[in-house]
Design brief:
The complex is a heterodimer of chains A (384) and B (250). Chain A is built from eleven helices and 13 strands. With 384 residues, chain A is an alpha+beta fold. Chain A has two domains: 201 residues, no CATH class; 165 residues, no CATH class. In chain A, the strands form three sheets. In chain A, strands 1, 3, 4, 5, 6, 7, 8, 10 and 11 form a nine-stranded mixed β-sheet that branches. In chain A, helix 1 crosses helix 8, helix 2 packs antiparallel against helix 6 and helix 2 runs antiparallel to helix 10. With 250 residues, chain B is of the alpha+beta class. Chain B is globular, with a radius of gyration of 21 Å. Classes of the chains: A alpha+beta (384), B alpha+beta (250). Chains A and B meet through strand 7 of A and loops of B.
């Protein structure tokens, strides 16, 4: 085995540029596979952490009549939370319209307790404010409506009977979050204020659970835990992983094709060498093994080459992150303006195995032909 | 001298008559008279709706049939993109038929709060079929001259909980019993919408505004014009018109 490795290494180095071209393409595929998977894992982890901190908490207790995917259920999808329920922060959701600069913008009004701590929404700004109707918005909402802290904007809403009401609200805080689900098209108000202006006293659409919440069957309410709520996010990222894998698998296929071609050419051009090996006492299987190891060595060299430029690259990206375009941040799923790739041991080992095994297979396929060669003819260098 | 006495007596009787008339006419009676003037048992109207946008305006022509306030049917005639779209309102239900999808959908709940074809009117504004005096307590708060016409300024405050607008102020022509302007207010007193009626024309013995401008006062823009091109009062309308099957008929 040691001899085979030494011979294979010398043969590869002896091949010069041909070897290094193969190694370059394969190392590129190697780095790209790790990069894409690291990017997806980084996004996944960041999105989950942010979604939990800003939107989900430890799960949502929802009114039965409310469907978060159907805005038409907002009108009737609320009710009084039972007094027995503890460790939740109620949120009432209603529809409204704001008129920034004379434009009509439909918004969701979300009433939240000023003392809540389960979500990162900076509700303490309500306590500090002296405005008649203080409001908190996210940076996406602030940008789309062109609002700043201290601005007043006219809000129109309907009370519980459907009668129009309107008043100015004051923006007291603008938060910066990656979670579009609590930001785009939404205005956060103190729950007490929303109760007063709509007449829906003590009503809630959802209640956000904290870590001490114990799920008990409640009539008219159903609980969705964190895992269920994050399922969509997992599915989106899984789908994205599959679609991006097409690109790097294509790249890997090109690299493997190059190795395959090189192997075919080697076996064709090195017939005399093969004959000599057999004449010197090597079995056909040993020669096949030698050529297969040669092919596999490409992947080892590619890994070394990949490490030379890949490791500094990943360290740099791990520190600076990868900027995401603004448009993709407004898609409705959590996406930060910068994603930090996560390159774990599992990812590296999986990629090494994928590249090495596939390189070994494509090296073995042409080398198989050696086992059928006539050693005398091979020694003479005749075509077979 | 005798003639002068007669003249003074006639003038006195005249003034007395006018003052008695204004004393007798309460706000409720004025609204009833306006209702009587403006509505008919049945109506067929060909109208244009001009929706003013920021860059350009759109004109939609439609033909409408109505029976009282509970039943109405309308069909859009132009532009080509909207032509064939039909709406049927039966009491508190509203259906819309779209020829492009060949589907009839019933609007309910929040959908009724959406704007009609991007105009300043909502479907809900069209759906209001209760009489004003059933929803509001009305009082005459002033008499004003508006567009060189003497008007009563009526303030209507909601007496029921589910009125869409808490307060309305309506200017009514004292001679023709036609509203000339209406303002709709939120509970907080914020002015929300304004309607201005103009081109008051006598049609079949009644005064009727041929042009109405609806304006959402919170939005910038010129609002939406509603122009009556043709109107027939009390024509005979087949009962089959106010049927869901008429939505799909060509």
């Amino acid at each position: 085995m040691k001899l085979a490795l030494q011979l294979a290494y010398k043969n590869l180095i002896g091949a010069g540029l041909r070897t290094w071209l193969n190694v370059a393409v394969l190392s590129f595929a190697f780095v790209i596979i790790i990069f894409f998977n690291g990017l997806m894992d980084g996004w996944n982890q960041q999105a989950k952490t942010d979604t939990i901190a800003w939107e989900i908490g430890f799960g949502h207790l929802r009114n039965d009549a409310y469907d978060p995917f159907d805005p038409f259920t907002l009108q009737d999808g609320h009710g009084k939370l039972p007094n027995t329920i503890e460790n939740v922060s109620p949120v009432l959701i209603q529809q409204g319209t704001i008129y920034p600069e004379g434009r009509m913008v439909s918004v969701l009004l979300k009433g939240i307790e000023t003392s809540q701590t389960v979500l990162e929404i900076p509700t303490d700004a309500f306590i500090k404010s002296t405005a008649k109707i203080p409001a908190i918005i996210g940076n996406r909402m602030a940008k789309s409506a062109n609002l700043k802290v201290g601005d007043e904007v006219l809000l129109r809403w309907r009370d519980k009977n459907g009668t129009f009401d309107a008043s100015n609200i004051t923006i007291v805080s603008i938060f910066d979050t990656t979670v579009a689900g609590v930001d785009a098209g939404q205005i956060w108000l103190p729950l007490q204020t929303l109760w007063e202006i709509t007449g829906l006293q003590n009503e809630a659409t959802i209640a956000i659970a904290n870590k001490n919440f114990v799920d008990a069957s409640l009539d008219g309410w159903n609980f969705e835990n964190r895992a269920v709520m994050l399922k969509n996010l997992d599915e989106i990222i899984e789908m994205k992983k599959i679609s991006s894998s097409i690109m790097y698998l294509l790249l890997l296929a090109i690299a493997l094709l190059a190795i395959f071609d090189t192997q075919v050419l080697s076996i064709f051009r090195r017939q005399k060498e093969i004959g000599t090996y057999i004449a010197l006492g090597m079995t056909r299987a040993q020669v096949v093994k030698l050529f297969t190891i040669e092919g596999s060595l490409y992947s080892i060299l590619a890994m070394i080459a990949g490490c030379i430029y890949g490791v500094p690259l990943f360290i740099y990206l791990g520190k600076t992150g990868i900027g995401m375009p603004q448009a993709s941040q407004d898609m409705g799923i959590s996406l930060a303006d910068k994603i930090y790739p996560i390159v774990g041991v599992q990812l590296i080992v999986t990629t090494i195995l994928l590249v090495t095994i596939s390189a070994t297979i494509v090296s073995f396929l042409p080398a198989k032909k050696i086992s059928k060669m006539n050693p005398v003819l091979a020694l003479k260098g005749k075509l077979q | 001298m005798k003639n002068l006495k007669y003249s003074i007596a006639i003038l006195c009787i005249g003034f007395l008559n006018i003052s008695m008339q204004s004393q007798e006419l309460t706000a409720d009676k004025i609204i009833q008279k306006v209702d009587k003037n403006m509505s008919a048992d049945t109506q067929i109207t060909v109208s244009e709706m001009i929706i003013y946008g920021k860059r350009k305006s759109r004109t939609i022509t439609s033909k409408g049939y109505s029976e009282g306030k509970m039943k109405s049917f309308s069909e859009y005639l132009s532009p080509a993109r909207e032509a064939g779209t039909k709406m049927l309102k039966l009491e508190d239900r509203l259906w819309i038929y779209s020829p492009s999808t060949d589907r009839t959908i019933q609007l309910s709940g929040h959908m009724l709060r959406q704007s009609v074809m991007g105009s300043d009117m909502s479907y809900e504004d069209m759906m209001e079929d209760r009489k004003l005096i059933e929803i509001y307590n009305a009082t005459i708060i002033a008499t004003e001259i508006l567009n060189e016409r003497k008007t009563w300024k009526l303030e209507l405050i909601a007496k029921v909980d589910d009125a869409t607008y808490f307060k309305r102020i309506i200017w009514i022509d004292t001679e023709r019993f036609v509203p000339l302007k209406e303002e709709l207010f939120a509970k907080s007193g914020q002015l929300l919408k304004k309607t201005v009626m103009s081109e008051i024309t006598k049609i079949n013995g009644r005064w009727y505004p041929k042009k109405m401008n609806y304006k959402d006062m919170l939005k910038t823009g010129k609002g939406t014009d509603f122009i009556v091109k043709e109107i027939q009062f009390n024509p005979k309308i087949s009962e089959a018109i106010f049927n869901k099957s008429s939505l799909k008929k060509n």
